[in-house]
Amino acid sequence: MVKEIEIAEALKLTNAIFVDIRAPKEFQEATIPGAINIPLFNDEERAEIGTIYKQISPEQAKLRGLEIAGPKIYSLVKEVKEKAGDKIPVIFCWRGGHRSKFFAYILNFMDINCLRLIGGYKAFRRLVHRYFSSADLPGAIVLYGNTGTGKTEIINKLLIERNLPAIDLEKLANNRGSVFGAIGLGEQPTQKNFEGLLFQHLMKVEQSHNFFIVEGESKRIGRLLLPEKFFTTMQTGHKVLIYASIETRTKRIVETYLKNYWNDPEQRMELSAAVNRLRQRLGNEKVKTLLEMLFEGNLDEFARILIEEYYDQVYGFPNHPDPEFDVCISSDNINECVEELEKYFRRIAHV
């Protein structure tokens, strides 16, 4: 008999792997974070079966599905065994319907210990929606500061080196949140996948902390939107100003971003196109100057002009301590900044 599991319990498992057996297009649109895709039907086959279901009958659709899936069973079972390894596969489709029931039965028949997710992906989506609609989120400690102050590096140091509950929103959104934010990063996730990833990170926070640390963002990151309740939590959180000298910020931007862009011809062209989009704000002459600096490799002066005449004008955070913030920390020395932030977090979170 196939064992079944609810989504809340499945997410708690530490020795399981989610196996999404839906068609590739469904998987790309939205899935459970960390799931692997082993499709029972490809996109064309799924469309064909759906048409038969609607226009002829459910019985004929099932027969056609069996006809298509039959020859694949051996390779699909083998793929599950190889990719799952020692983990328990949790099988799911869209609503926990015919596809997952059929495939979980096959795995069970082959003596492969598996679980079938009740309600499929839709159950996970409902859980995420309910969480961002009605749950009490942990408190937020929000880092604000102008471009080049190292906020993303600080977030990652707090997470990796200090094991603190920091969330890198730009990484989850695959966008750095500025006019140059998408260069070299490829496609952003879908809105549903982004919300699923954020939900997953907040669940990890709640296991051991009542606060999380995050970089201050606008409600939109690239083409993605932060959930309303999460954004409100950020706006009402503890405000930390990160500031640094113009020399430090220039060096960071050059070392972290511009050298990589400049050394890659394709990314250099993307950077050039992004600079061209600043004509309305900076004017034709300034953009012409910036492009000349870029192609001459004068990256320090290029970065400095961008900081002073674009970034600081757009974001407008203080470049010095300011009483509007709960605490202000210099990031000229990034490690000392991280140390101070850890002390602040432990004081606020009482840990």
Automatic annotation (TrEMBL):
GO terms for biological process: tRNA wobble uridine modification. SMART domains: RHOD. InterPro entries: AAA_SelU, P-loop_NTPase, Rhodanese-like_dom, Rhodanese-like_dom_sf, SelU. Gene3D superfamilies: P-loop containing nucleotide triphosphate hydrolases (3.40.50.300), Rhodanese-like domain (3.40.250.10). Pfam families: AAA_SelU, Rhodanese. One of its GO terms (molecular function) is tRNA 2-selenouridine synthase activity. Residues 12-133 form the Rhodanese domain. Keywords: Selenium. PANTHER family: TRNA 2-SELENOURIDINE SYNTHASE. This is tRNA 2-selenouridine synthase.
